Amino acid sequence: VRLPSSRGRNSRAQRNIQMEGKGSGLDEAPSLDPPAESLDGEKPVKEREITLKSGDGKSFKISSKEAIISGVIKAALQGDPNETEIPLDRIKGITLGKVVEYMKMRKGVDMPELKWPIKHKTMVEICGAGNEEVAKWIDEVSKHRADFYDLLLATVHLDIKGLQAAGVAKIASLLKYCKAEDLDRVLDPAITDGKLLPLRQSVIEERKKEEEERIKKREERKREREKKEAEVTKDASK
Fold this sequence. Notes:
By secondary structure, the chain is mostly helical. The chain has helices at 11-15, 64-67, 71-79, 93-106, 123-127, 132-141, 145-158, 161-176, 201-237, and strands at residues 49-54, 59-63, 85-88. Strands 2-1-3 form a 3-stranded mixed sheet.
């Protein structure tokens, strides 16, 4: 996966970017002290301050040690040990700011990927011991649905698998434990404070149409059944 090209000075780093898959399935939080070099001999990242630049021109300074939570950024830094600016044209500033918050919170170590299916209601329970800060942060960020969805897309672009899994788990918990009549409301992107909004008119009309269709099919089955019963009665009377 390549970063969008925006600056010539970064092209060398961009050519070396590739997604890295990783997963753990751990119940407890991992150590926050990443090894200097992995067991498979991959190139270590020289520690330095770097700048992440969003598509709308916002800049965020962060330590390379914290930023390598992202597989994409890690690959860029490994590809060019002198690189200090990473352009992320597909990500808005408000979203990149949230990503940087997470990177600094985790000190360079991503959340462990979660076990499925989700068996708990609260994010603190879902994320497990040692990850309470992230759980509460996700609860807060997800109150603004549109920004939360943008954050989830950013985790895909940047290859941050632990945060992506936690975000998906938040959506799963919202759907799994809401009332049936609220299913169309709970993920409404218009929500900005976590509170459900009145059902949209388009959804009301769609439900009405679905109900009318169910009634129509029920009536058709009833007529067909009555027709068959009449034929059976007629044959029996002969």
